[in-house]
Structure formats: structure tokens, C-alpha cells
Amino acid sequence: MEHGRLVLESVAEAPSGATSVAHPVVKIRGDRACALEDQVTVEEPLEIRLAGRSLSITMRTPGHDEELVAGLLAAERIVEGPDDVELIAHYPGPRDEPELKNVINVLLKRSNRASRELAGRRVITSSACGLCGRSTVEGILADTRPIDSPLRVPIDFFYRLEPALSAAQRTFEKTGGLHAAGLFDSTGRLCVLREDVGRHNAVDKIVGHMLLSRNFPLDDHVLMVSGRAGFEIVQKALVARIPIVASVSAPSSLAVALARACGMTLVGFLRRDGLNIYAGAHRVDGAGVDDEKTP
Question: Is 164 left (phi over 0), alpha (psi -120 to 50) or beta?
Fold first, then answer.
């Protein structure tokens, strides 16, 4: 506290692009206490500019920033594919302006109605939520086609996802403070994994990676997230045309409603010995039950 104001003290100056940084902690176990150094997850703001004009600020874990921005733009329908993007890059500014490491500029090859509307407002987001602006299922479905994918997988397919996701979470092993999202192909092979302080950011980084690498849309892939499956997760998967979304925790009511309305398969509480299917059970071989209320 300084003259009645809160002063934010930096944990440590994180090297450019670092995902974790060392910080002293007091560790207590039972009646014993000891001072040691631990790793904490880096969280920094990223300013997104559209043709040099400030568009959005999102809190994220540094790394794969270009993918994050591409995923955000795809989620908001600002871009529909790689051919819409001219440039997504950090400013190359002088070394005496280190804040530029947290600024990305976007140039589009062509402007559409959505990009013009978005350029007229400034959207502030955090690591806890996705871009706002479409808060109802009806709003999403008004301009997005339902998913029509022939992809089907056996129940055993899901039990291989969490171990593969956990084994690839390098930064989580050090900090315990990151969400993860993984994109799997129809054989269960992990194609892309991204970690971030925000679960929505991790999904955006995956979608952005696939978009920029020209592997888009993703109608023959499965998305796995390490936390709960909220509405924004399903929304982002819908835009990317991902037919199956799985999570280790619970979905929200609005996520279930959107998944059912758009023909997506939504799996929650995925453990090594069980799972719940909230929507789209027809894509899971072996999930048939004698119940008219099957999702």
C-alpha cells in the first residue's frame, strides 16, 4: 500500500516468452515449515491491435501468441480461414520498449462486416472467459450451421485421452497452475496440445494453430479440455467444426444446450473408468442404452 493506493509488486521479471517463473514460498506440511523456491505460472496482458488500432486486451500465459489471436478471431467470425489473414505478429520495436512483447498487430487481407463492427469497439477479456458478444444459443445458431460429421469413436477411445493430455503438460508439471487443451485425430493421436492460465485461451491457441497451418476446419477431430466444459468452449469448438468435445469435469447447462442444438457430442466427467455423455451419444459406439432419454 502506497499513499492509500494498492501497488502491484512483480513476482519476478519473467523472461520474454517464459511460461513460469521462480518465486520464494513458505511450504508447510503438518507442523513443519520451510522456505524454498517454487515455480508459478506467468500471466501477462496481451494487447491485440487490428491495423494498429487497439482492439482487445486478454490475460494469457505467453507463448503461441499468434495462434491465440488467430483462434480468437476465428471464434468471433472475423476470419474464416487462413486466406483471410495477411499478418499476425508482434511488433519488432526497439529493445528499450520491452512492453511490445505483449502487443500483437493483425492485418486482414479483406475486411468483412464482422471485422468492421469489431473495429468500432474495444473488447476487454480476461483469462477466465472468452470474447463476449454472443450470450445465447439462439445467437450462435443464427449464423452457424449445425455440425454434420460422420466421425464415430468407441467408448475406449475416450479413456486414452486424459493420460495422453496429462503426459504432455510440461508446464503444469512445474506449476500446477495451468489449464490444457488437446486436439486428437480419429485414431486417438494427440495432434496439438496447448497450455494456458485460461482454458479458453488454450482452446484458441489450438484452433489458431490449425487455422494458420491450413488444417481447417476440424470436423474429423476431438477436443479434450482439462477443466469444465463451459459455453465458450463449446462455442469455439462449433466455429472450428469440431464434432466431439470431452472434459474431465462438468459441462454447464448452456454448454449442453448448445451442444444438443448444434449436433455436437459432449462428454463430461471423463475418468479412466467412466464418463457421462450429455449430447450426441450417436457418435459413441457402444453407448446405446434402452432409454428414450438418451442424449
Answer: alpha
CA–CA dist 283, 290 (Å, integer) = 16
Same domain as 81, residue 192: no
Q: At what angle do helices 199-212 and 231-239 cross, to 10 degrees?
A: 0
**Are 88 and 184 part of one and the same domain?**
no
Contacts of 250 (CB under 8 A, 6+ apart): 228, 229, 268, 269
Q: Is residue 48 part of a domain?
A: yes
Look at the chain and report how many structural domains it folds into: 2
Which residue blocks in 24-136 are alpha helix, DSSP H? Answer: 65-75, 113-119
Weakly modelled stretches of the chain, pLDDT under 70 = 1-13, 28, 93-99, 111-142, 172-177, 289-294
Cα(78)–Cα(66) distance, integer angstroms: 15
The three cell numbers of residue 188 are 486417438
Per-residue confidence (pLDDT) for residue 129, from 0 to 100: 47
Structural domain that includes position 82: 44-134
Instruction: Give buried/exposed letters for 105-136 (b at 16+ CB in 10 A, else e).
Output: bbebeeeeeebeebeeeeeebbbeebbeebee
What predicted TM-score, i.e. pTM, was given to this entire model? 0.84
| Catalytic machinery residues | 129
pLDDT at 221: 98
* 26-39 as b/e: b if 16+ CB within 10 A: eeeeeeeeeeeeeb
Rounded CA separation 157/288 (Å): 16
